[in-house]
Amino acid sequence: MATHKEVPQALRNWFLFHFAVDILFAIPLLLFPVYFLEALGWKIVDPVAARLVAAALFGIGIVSFTSNKSTLDTYRGMLNLKIFWSLGAITGLTISLIQGDQGRPFTLWLLLFIFIAFNCLWVYWKNKVFHYKTDRT
After folding, report:
1. Which of 132, 14, 12 is nearest to 72 (CA)?
2. Rounded Cα gap, residues 102 and 112, in angstroms
3. What is the per-residue pLDDT across 118-131, written as a single tens digit (0 to 9) for each?
């Protein structure tokens, strides 16, 4: 179990993986949002909104990368951000699926699953690293 002074290497690795996923989606959303989202099944694309999402992905992803050697306090803040970002995305995607937005393409379901998976991952690490018992009796 981690102490207050150490960040588990596995958590550091997940942050690097999350950086790669964020950048993988951010680049096409920023550079060619209409083409990218239409290829994913979107019927209507707002390039401005897509580029704002790209900016959020770049910001979260790059901070995940640059904070890789940071302290536990930095990871605490980043985990909170990732948990609330993914919860917001889950809520928004769920509402869109209920309302039938974009015709409910498969990729909308896939994005929902990805955000749920990441949220579970971040909640797991938050509980494992910051809410552990010091007495095992």
Report:
1. 12
2. 14
3. 999 999 999 999 87
